Amino acid sequence: EAIVRVFSSDEAVIVVGVRLLYIAALFQLFDGFQVVATGALRGAGDTSTPMLANLVGHWLLGLPIGWWLCFRMGWGAPGIWMGLSTGLIFVGAALAYFWSTRLERFRAHTAA
Question: pLDDT of the chain along its 112 residues, tens only?
Fold first, then answer.
């Protein structure tokens, strides 16, 4: 709350700002995970999978869910951030799955 009060003294802004900071903190965890997974796949020579996972996760899941939560459910700014976070969680999970399948292939190849 103290962080938000640096930028505004309006109580309504503070309430929303605090909620957004909690969502942003959670968002950062998943964003960091997907960045690492993207880098691992890129290092393995696979740039298509992260691109497709991000396309699906952000544009086909995160944005529509965020729009729905924000405007249809009336959640406002926290709704859009929760929707985008949902898309990001999908991206991270998808990239973890694809990395694990690549890892098995790499292990089989190096063991041979």
Answer: 888 999 988 899 999 999 999 999 999 999 999 999 999 999 989 999 999 999 999 999 999 999 999 999 999 999 999 999 999 999 999 999 999 888 777 777 776 6
Dist. CA 3–CA 59, nearest whole Å: 31
User: How is residue 43 written in tokens?
Assistant: 């290092």
pTM of the entire predicted model:
0.81
Residue 8 phi/psi, 5° resolution? -155, 150
CA 98 to chain centre: 16
- Residue where the block lists tokens 């944005």: 63
In residues, how long is the chain? 112
